[in-house]
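Hello Y.,

Per our agreement to keep a running log of every chain we model this quarter, I'm adding this entry. I've kept the format consistent with earlier entries: sequence first, then predicted structure.
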Amino acid sequence: MATPFPTDLVAAPAAGRIAWVSSHSGVHNVLIAEGPDHKWRAVTSYTGDNGLWITELAWTSDAKTLVYVRGDGANRQGESPNPAQLQDGTDQAVFAVAVDGGAPRRLGAGSGPAVSPQGQGVAWVARGQIWGVDLSSSTDQPAQLVNSRGSASGLVWSPDGTMLAFTSGRGTHSFIGVMGAGLYLKGRADVDPARIGLWGGSYGGYLTAMGLSRASDLFAAGVDFHGVHDWNQGIRTFVPDYNVLDDPDFSRRAFAASPMATVDGWKSPVLLIHGDDDRNVSFIESIDLIVALRKRNVEVEQLVFPDEVHNFLRHQNWVRGYQAAAEFFNRRLKKTATETPRH
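Predicted structure for the entry above:
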């Protein structure tokens, strides 16, 4: 248990250097090595088993500075984990440290840092917004780069370092994206518009069910891994005392945003895959949907994993699930030898 172990191994873009995070009896530090002998040395000197892990290690383009995240993310209430009961410094934050000496510099709260491939620009996400700083300037202060709707994630710089791409999660816009992708495929000359499938897991399962219940004319078949089908049921999983009668307007809107609200429009066949000990999306979600679909003569298949949870714990269940999905789509979407090719 006391043997050091390395994680987050990254190679520098220059100077033949490598860096990694070393964890030893609960103490986490950044180490580097460089040629020709590659003898390692530490560039941080944190002490104590305080639960503050170091992750997301990245080099700057000149291989002189390392950027990393220290600490874990906050919960829904904005509370940072603090198992060592520290007085301060427990929030998740982005740091930079010069590998040739000097104390780490706290850039700001957040995670997901992206280092520019050109220059010394660093961007990261804090509370869903993008922040950045130029490390080459000793006076430059972190500033919010974009004031965008939704929650930003997945920051990626352009090769020349002049532009920054990111994903903007906007809640209810997710289904619009699914429809947009389906319509894009339908318009391609190399895609048969009658054989477009849809699949996903968890929230992706919800989006799959939304697509099939609201656009069966676009999506010919779907595979739904443990998706939410009625938000009033989904909320109850995490808020046991949730009562739809407490706020009828809210519960009405929650149901209206659910696949069960438009199940009458569901015509396409579907395969539902679920573990019956799912603690995130109740198994009853799939049972209720199966009953509703069979009443409407919709072809529905199911694969149930006994005593399995939401994020399948057994490797063989993931394999079986993906194999079942592939086989289902082959049966439902693949052309047979007797069919006339599309021109």
